[in-house]
Amino acid sequence: MQPAGVKVIGVLVRSSLMLVLHVLGWLFVKQLIWPAGELTLIWPPAAVSFAGLLLFGLRYWPVVALACTVVELQQPGTQPIGAFLSICGPTLGAVAGAWLCRRLADGRELTGLSVRDLWLLLLGAVLLGAVSGLFGTLSAVWFPTGAPVQALRYWLAWLLGDLLGIVVCTPALLALHHAVMQRRLSPLDRTYCRPVERWAWLLVTGLSLWVLLSYGVHAAAPVQGLAFLPLALLAWSALRLEPLFTSVPVA
After folding, report:
1. 4-182 fold
2. Which of 81, 202, 234, 247 has a 20 to 30 Å separation from 89 between CA atoms?
């Protein structure tokens, strides 16, 4: 039995991890693909909340609510009741989606690396997005901060954003957590490449990111021409390296 102090530290570490990743996901969207503040087609914070409740338990729902509150406080012009709905929606949606997944998994650990896991995640993601989108749509319709919205279209866009965020990011988060806890890069008992090839892949990936970011600051055309780099690296990792080296870069 663990001492009380160790348990408290564990709770704080897990809570901090969920909160930080949630905010980082929001910053990524806000700075790169959501500068104007409209609904985005991919919402990584939903994936973080979903993965956190799957891994650590539904009792961590207050952390999801806190993370949503931190993000919502950064939105200018939001009315208090509208902000409350925007916080309740993602929180209740994450709880509902994670509860469904854990219920269907029947005590089995979700690693995000099997077809069954992906189907369960997809079902949970649909429920999460539906619940979260309902509250978000009510907030946008009843307490608008901009132009009037069409309720059904707005709800579908919200659902799609949460769904794509979970499909892209949650399997990688689950696989990464599993690898850390098991202290092995793959759950499969098979031989992959030698360590030197993994380091070579990491080096080439780092150089490719540096090239893309350096050219992207000055013009978009060179970046479009270099789009083959990440695709080639993903093909390399899929064929030669452990699944973790493919799922994490995709996320």
Report:
1. Arp2/3 complex 21 kDa subunit ARPC3 (1.10.1760)
2. 247
